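Quick one, tokens below:
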């Protein structure tokens, strides 16, 4: 039987998603919990790896098992053995043809950024931060240049293992909530796939434009350069959330994370 799980986690305490020798990753904690619940080793595959400090609202994993349990049992049983900052949100039996990564037709991320003269306190590690005011219209104008199919080499980390830097950005939405003195910006990205550090590198450029340090058209120059050195420095991982993969309806999986609307 093939089972799919939806996982949420606060990434502050972990060295990213992918298993490491240290054991301090989300995958390590999940597989340890599953092994304790099933009393047998479990190896999972995920829809999209996240880096250290990055959060997940609907990471999707799948694995094969001979253990027969009701979905609620998988959720409650696994959560019993997970730390409080990781939780299984749902469990669904899926056909053997389902693959959490290969079956995804798109992926969604959000970046939450605090604009305030004072650094974050209770939100520390959960939001990015800028002390300078941002021009939303300038950032939205710049973001339009990134929508569509492009070579995103300029926004690609040197350690990226993707076969091709060409990706299709379906949409970028930018909204602000708050007062004139302080507020939260929410940047939402959807693409067929993302490169390593791609969103954080784009965020560095959008913030530079929003602060007036570069004009909106500058991002076209960065994109065309196909050179990582042409872009702004990589932005903080703190405010980055993996909202989850997008699947065709035929798989019968939730379209949104239960905690999706928690973000500002």
């Amino acid at each position: 039987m093939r089972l799919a799980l939806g996982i949420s986690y606060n990434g502050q305490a972990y060295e990213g998603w992918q298993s490491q020798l240290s054991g301090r990753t989300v995958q390590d904690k999940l597989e340890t919990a599953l092994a304790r619940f099933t009393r047998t080793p479990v190896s999972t595959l995920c829809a999209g790896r996240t880096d250290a400090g990055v959060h997940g609202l609907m990471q999707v994993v799948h694995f094969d098992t001979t253990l027969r349990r009701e979905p609620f049992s998988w959720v409650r049983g696994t959560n019993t053995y997970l730390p409080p900052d990781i939780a299984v949100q749902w469990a669904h039996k899926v056909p053997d043809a389902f693959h959490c990564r290969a079956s995804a037709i798109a992926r969604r991320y959000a970046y939450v950024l605090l604009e305030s003269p004072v650094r974050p306190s209770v939100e520390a590690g959960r939001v990015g931060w800028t002390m300078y005011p941002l021009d939303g219209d300038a950032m939205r104008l710049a973001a339009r240049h990134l929508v569509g199919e492009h070579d995103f080499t300029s926004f690609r980390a040197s350690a990226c293992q993707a076969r091709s830097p060409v990706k299709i950005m379906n949409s970028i939405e930018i909204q602000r909530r708050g007062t004139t003195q302080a507020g939260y910006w929410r940047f939402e990205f959807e693409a067929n796939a993302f490169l390593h550090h791609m969103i954080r590198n784009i965020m560095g450029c959008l913030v530079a434009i929003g602060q007036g340090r570069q004009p909106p058209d500058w991002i076209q120059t960065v994109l065309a350069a196909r050179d990582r050195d042409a872009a702004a420095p990589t932005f903080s991982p703190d405010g980055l959330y993996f909202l989850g993969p997008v699947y065709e309806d035929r798989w019968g999986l939730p379209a949104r994370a239960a905690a999706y609307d928690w973000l500002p």
